[in-house]
Amino acid sequence: MDQTVNVKELNEHIRNESSFVDMINMEMNKVIVGQKHLVESLLVGLLSDGHILLEGVPGLAKTLAISTLSGIVDTRFNRIQFTPDLLPADLLGTMIYSQQKEEFMVKKGPIFTNFVLADEINRSPAKVQSALLEAMQERQITIGEETFKLDQPFLVLATQNPIEQEGTYPLPEAQVDRFMLKVVIDYPQLEEEKLIVRQNLAREFPTANQVVQPDDILRARGIVKEVYIDEKIEKYILDIVFATRYPDQYGLDHFGGMINYGGSPRASINLALASKAYAFIKRRGYVIPEDVRAVCHDVLRHRIGLSYEAEAENITSEDIITEILNTIEVP
């Protein structure tokens, strides 16, 4: 780690560069009531080039949040409803025969956009899910013999129904791991819901203005990587992830039989990246332990495989992460 980093200068630089975050928040708050955590998570994903898996009951403004953000950043947005009969071609596009030109042409699918809302991703079979995940991982699509690069920024926000629901196909672990964050959203508070009802009954529904360009987001992604992360914080991040793999080494012996597998190296990378993005959103040029703790549940909750024993005892990945955070020494 380069010790010559001038944290004061870097802090000033990040504070200047992150001023647009306040403008985005202001515009989002015009349309989205409450759901502060959802808006913050969207910004973390956008600034660290990571995709987001959302879990929550219908009607919690998931579509509204991403379509509003898309308008604020002046990008294109598509919503794709996943159903059991959806085919990969419905998502990616296909080759069609043009009688005028007497040749096959590529007809691009709805994935060719900047922001994709993959609604109820676990309603579709594995073939469709894997088609989407290739696009997420490689940032490119192959149709026939042609390969197309996707436009940047490219952000997938996938919603999934709680697994207990009828007619859902659980996402395989390797596919779930492709999502940087898994955000669980809950019902609004009473006062917030009163505001939501008023907004929807008003003569005109509020709209957000476009305040940022896609190039601003791409530039900000480079600056997010400049956020300073101390060696002690790096070790803290690695200790948290390693505690999900080897709980007994961290004094968490009672979790020994509860965890089938812990976070992959992708978990460590994403926890560090998300912490940097969170510090950037808070307009700071360095990461503090609170940043790591703020994003930890979202980065790790879908990366811990629970055993039958844990399920029998009603222990969730949330409980495990909370206990790890309470046990590991904060630098």
Would you give an account of this structure?
The protein is built from 14 helices and 11 strands. Helix 2 (about 20-30) packs across helix 4 (about 60-70) and helix 3 packs across helix 11 (about 265-280). The protein has helices at about 5-15, 20-30, 35-45, 60-70, 90, 125-140, 175, 190-200, 215-225, 230-245, 265-280, 290-300, 310, 315-325; strands spanning about 50-55, 75-80, 95-100, 105-110, 115-120, 140-145, 145-150, 155-160, 180-185, 260, 305. The mean pLDDT is about 85. The longest helix has 17 residues, at about 265-280. Helices cover about 45% and strands about 15% of the residues. By secondary structure, the protein is an alpha/beta fold. It has 2 domains: about 15-220, P-loop containing nucleotide triphosphate hydrolases (Rossmann fold); about 230-325, Orthogonal Bundle (Helicase, Ruva Protein, domain 3). A hairpin with a 2-residue loop joins strand 6 (about 140-145) and strand 7 (about 145-150).
CATH architecture of the largest domain: 3-Layer(aba) Sandwich
Q: For this structure, what is the CATH homologous superfamily of the largest domain?
A: P-loop containing nucleotide triphosphate hydrolases
Order of helices and strands: HHHEHEHEEEHEEEHEHHHEHHEHH
Question: Based on DSSP secondary structure assignment, what is the total number of beta strands?
Answer: 11
Number of helices: 14
Percent of residues in beta strands? 5-15%
Query: Which sequence of strands runs across the widest sheet?
Result: 2-5-8-1-9
* CATH uppermost class of the largest domain: Alpha Beta
Q: Mean of the pLDDT scores?
A: 86
